[in-house]
Predict the structure.
Amino acid sequence: MLRTRLATAMVLAGSLLMMASVGLISSVTADWEQLNGIHGLRRMTVNADHAAASSNSAKMMLLEARQLEMKWSPLPVAYTAAEQSIVKAGQRSVSCDVVGVSGNYREFAQVRLTAGTSITEPAVAGRSKVAVVSSQAASQLFGTERVVGKTIELYNNPFIIIGVFDVSDSLLSQMSDNGVPDVLTPVTALIDVDAKAKITTALLAAKPDAAVRGEADVKQALAAIGKDATQFRIENGELVHEQIAQYKSLLLFTYGITAIVLMARLIAWQWTTVRRALQGALETYDWGDALHSERSRLLKHALLAAGMAVCAASLWLSIRFRLYVPPDWLPDELIDMTFYANKLRSLWQQQVSLAGYVPAPQELLSSAAGKLACILFAAGLLFGLPLYLLGVRLWAMAHVPLLAQLQRLLACIPVVVFAAFAAARWMEVATGSNCGTLRCRAPCFLLPSFIFTLKRRVDYHAEYRLQNIDRCLPYGVLIDCDGMPEPKRQSVRRFEGSGR
C-alpha cells in the first residue's frame, strides 16, 4: 500500500515538473520578448566595452550616434546614455539610474505608462528638460504616484515630470535588476546638464538577414562613422533568442523520443506475440490453416501495431526541430580536442575580461532569461522525466492492476492541468505575458506515461501467466500459450488433448 502511494506521488510530481518546465520556459521567453518593446528580439545591441578600451574611445558622441542612425536608415535606431545620479524633490533625495534616451527608445524597451506621456522625438530635438519617472521613484520622492507636472532636480537643473511608468515585477525583471531605469530624460538634455555623459548603448532594428549577417552589418556601420568595432560588444537578439528558446524544443524532443521508444518496444512485442502464435499453430497445421486459425489474433495485433506506428510517426513530426549551434562552435573536424580546449580557454578568458564590463539593460534581460531557461530545462530533464518513469515502474513492481493504474493516471491529469492553468494565470497577471503555449499543450505531456504503463502491464500479464500456469491446469482453464517456454506449451497441449 505504501509503495503504491509512493508510486502515485512520484508520477504526479514528475508530471508536474515536466509540464511546468516546458510551460514556464515558454512564459519566460514570452515575457522576455515583451520587455524588449515593439521590435521584440529582432534587434542588435551595441554596447561600449570599457574593459577593452579607454574611458572615452568606446563611447559615442551625439553627432556620431546620429550618423549611425542615418547609416542604418530606414530601420529605426535608439541610443542611450546612462548615469547614476542623485535626484532631488524638495527635501528628499534618491539615488537613481538616470538614462537619456532618443525618441525611438520605446520601440526597443517596454515602458508601461500609467500617467502622462513618454519622451518624444520633438523633446529630444528641442533639448527639453523633461523626465519620465518610474512609479517606485515617484513614491520615494513624493510619497505618491500622481506626480505629472511636478519638478525634480537633476544635476542642479530642474526637470518637469511629464509621465510615470510602471516597472515590471516579474522574476525575469528582478533577476536582471529590472533592466529598466528609474528616470528617463531626452539624451540631448542629459548631455547638456552633465558634461561627462556619453552615449554608451545603441539599439538597432534587425535586418531580414540579421541571423546571418547581423553582426557584420553592425561592424560595417560602426566603421563607417569612424568607430572601432572591437571596442563594443554586439549582441544579436535574434540568435540569442533562438539559442534560449530551443531549451523548450529539446525538452519536448526528449519527452517525445521517450514515448516513441516505448511505442517501438510495444510494436516489437506485438510482432513477437504473432510469431510465437504462428509457430505454435504450425506445429499442428500447415500455413493456410495456421493463418486461418490465428486470423483474429493476427488482425488484432496488426491493427494495434499500425495504430502505434501512426502515433509514433505523428509524434515525431510534431517534436522534430533544427538544433542551432553557433558557427564558432563547429570545428573543421568532429574529433578535434585542440579546438575544444582552445574554446574552453577562450570562454574562461572572456569571463575574466567581463570583470569591468557594464552590460546594457537588454543584455541583462538576455542573461537572466538564459539562466532561467537553463534551470527549468535541468528540472524537467533530470528530475521530472526520471521521476514519473520510476513511479510507473514502481506501480508495475507493486503489481497494481491495469484498471487501478489508469484510474490513478486519470486522477493525476486534473490535478496537473489545474496546477498548470493556475500557474499560467498567475504568470499572466504578474507579468502580463502570454502563457497560451502552456495551456494548449498541457495534456500532451502525459502521453509517455500512458504508453509506459501499458507496456509494463503487458509484461506483468505475461509473467503472471507463466507463474500461474500449473495452478490453472487442474481447473480446465483455457490458457493462452503465447510467450510460454516450450515445456509449458507442451504441457498445456497435453492437458487440452486429454479431454479433461
